[in-house]
Write the structure tokens for this entry.
Amino acid sequence: MLKKELLESKPWQKRNCLVFLSDFGNADGAVSAMYAVADSVSPSLRLYDLTHEIPQFDIWAASYRLMQAMSYWAPGTVFVCVVDPGVGSERKSIVALTKSGHLIVTPDNGTITHIAETVGILEVREISEINNRLEGSQKSYTFHGRDVYAYTGARLASGFEEFGEVGPLFNGDFVKLKVEMPRVEGPSIVGAIDILDTRYGSLWTNIPESFLDKLNIEYGQYLNVEISINDRITYGYNVKYCQSFSQVNSGEPVLYVNSLLTIGLAVNKGNFSKKYRIGTGEGWKISLNLI
């Protein structure tokens, strides 16, 4: 969508919908408090959770999970993304308008990195925390998720505040994490290990399935897989490319196409990440090499 069309149509006011993402977990009342603030702004808001199980302080995981889910929500949905290890510091608070017509209320710490790379950002505004803050919270510096982000997100989604009113256009570049962009280099495909399929420990890369087609790689073929962290190799074995996990024996590694149509790496009935001590995020690189 064009920025002018989005700003004039204001799809977030039609959606009246707020989605929360955080690393708070559900063991205490933090998430409930954010819900309560949004409800106090407008009881008619529809409130949902993307997840609150982001690993503590893991900005990369927050950025990825936001990208993973956002496109399935209708344009106009407002997201409140709070993984904020720098809360109370000089880091900025922002609202980003995406090319898809979504709004993201979040700290400026890298949480919109994957959205910027895949969807695109049309405009970013800095939140004025003097005007966009829960009344009576001015002396609180450690819970901006409740006091600033839930409050601002609710006001935007309910139509009580215009996008252009949250604060000035963001001055300079917003923070972006370093992403190893997927590419074909001769007989090799290079990319990043973006995230884990958390429950099963499978690695999800940012390598599109179409890159394998470019090299005429077919199911049943073995590829040499090399994984490194900051250029230190931690894994280097030949792995079979398969349509499903069951096409290798239990305990064996397998390359496959995941639900986002990118390349994954798993252990059949096992946990690849734990078995080989592989992580995700900045610095983790994977290459698939023809044998």
Summary: The CA atoms of residues 105 and 291 lie 46 Å apart. Helices lie at 3-9, 11-15, 30-41, 59-70, 113-118, 144-158, 209-214, 272-276. The chain has two domains: 3-165, 183-290. The chain has a mean pLDDT of 93.
